[in-house]
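WARN  no MSA supplied for this record, continuing single-sequence
INFO  ligand: flavin-adenine dinucleotide
INFO  echoing inputs
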Amino acid sequence: MDFDLPPDDDPTRQQVRAWLRDNPSPTGRQLAEAGYVAPHWPRPWGLDADPIQQLVIDEELRAAGVRRPANPIGIGWAGPTILHAGTEAQKERYLFPLLSGEEIWCQLFSEPGAGSDLANLSTRAEQDGDEWVVNGQKVWTSLAHHARYGILIARTDADVPKHQGVSYFVCPMDLPGIEIRPLIEMTGGHTFNEVFLTDVRLPADSLVGEVNKGWTLAKVTLGNERVSLSSGGALWGNGPSASDLFDTVRAAGGVDDPHLRQRLAQLWIEAEVLRLIRLRTVTAAVKGTQPGPEASIRKMLADEHGQRIMGLAKDLAGARGLLEDEGPLGQPDLHGWHYGFLFATALTIGGGTSEVQRNIVAERVLGLPHDVDVEVGKTWKQARAAESGR
Ligand SMILES: Cc1cc2nc3c(=O)[nH]c(=O)nc-3n(C[C@H](O)[C@H](O)[C@H](O)COP(=O)(O)OP(=O)(O)OC[C@H]3O[C@@H](n4cnc5c(N)ncnc54)[C@H](O)[C@@H]3O)c2cc1C
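INFO  complex generated
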């Protein structure tokens, strides 16, 4: 890391502190209108903040115990894509309610036959007068049951190679023809859904960007990551971290078993490596250079590290860990270790599987040959016909 965060008299720091004195318990709408939800966005939605200013704002909000609205898909993915390619009317309509958390968003991308190979998607959108008629099925749609809108990618031309015939839409989730069926996880929780779309009529102004140029926008969506010095928690920053586990072990008087001690030391080393990789990514952003391979490497390492934290917490609970409310070493489950143990298995799948991350590292970092693509030169329709004949 070769930057220091500015001291107490830094103007941004002073401005945030003064604002927090006037707004000690801000609502999502107040945070959004002040530009503090996504400070790196352009005005009026953000503050055009550079990476250092973002980090200062993050630090001040955290110190004041202020949490930003929870709307991960809206703020993290839909918003940046609309900013990038949306019309002025779309920006005006969607961005503030999305930043304030008043309108939750979901992502209608994955399908039963299109996950890692997302461009294989077969949900169709056909133009009918001013409207688009959508038919198909999506799956693993997190938060669909709470969402006001979804970002939807659908096939608008089947007679071109698969990446070229995809368009990007905003889909109001209360339209006739949308059926949301819950998928209950092994945690007992309900985050995901299957979404069935039958003759759903999207208005003309639902299209984002140009017809058949949606794949480029889908890549904008998937590649968008805010500069953040997040806590390093194990469940994509939302769960307990290795240091929470060390605190729990210390509070219980430590462990003698040499094998368990070795696993704890291994986790400490991994957490430190991840912290340093994160600082390298932030340093690159602060210097205005593109982050290198750190982001892909970090995702792969962090998700597997998260599973090992949860696995060790469970092992430290021993046989009593079979009961839901037992934490490590006879401690109460204050950090949600049981839920985390069950949910952590999803981390190496969501947001690009670990195998796919390794492919990216192999190709872009190590310069190894690209995955064999049997569909080169074929239209989406020809490729699917060949597939069904196999
Ligand atoms: C927690 C979580 C949240 C999610 N939320 C959403 C959401 O809100 N919206 C949404 O649209 N989707 C969501 N998903 C879906 C997610 O994006 C997909 O599960 C993921 O892209 C993998 O696709 P798949 O499940 O179809 O697996 P597949 O792509 O079928 O993969 C099956 C297996 O094959 C391996 N594999 C596939 N291709 C290759 C290759 N080229 N080389 C080596 N191995 C390969 C994979 O690594 C995996 O082990 C979520 C998933 C999870 C776990």
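The first helix runs from residue 11 to 22.
INFO  checksum written, moving to next record
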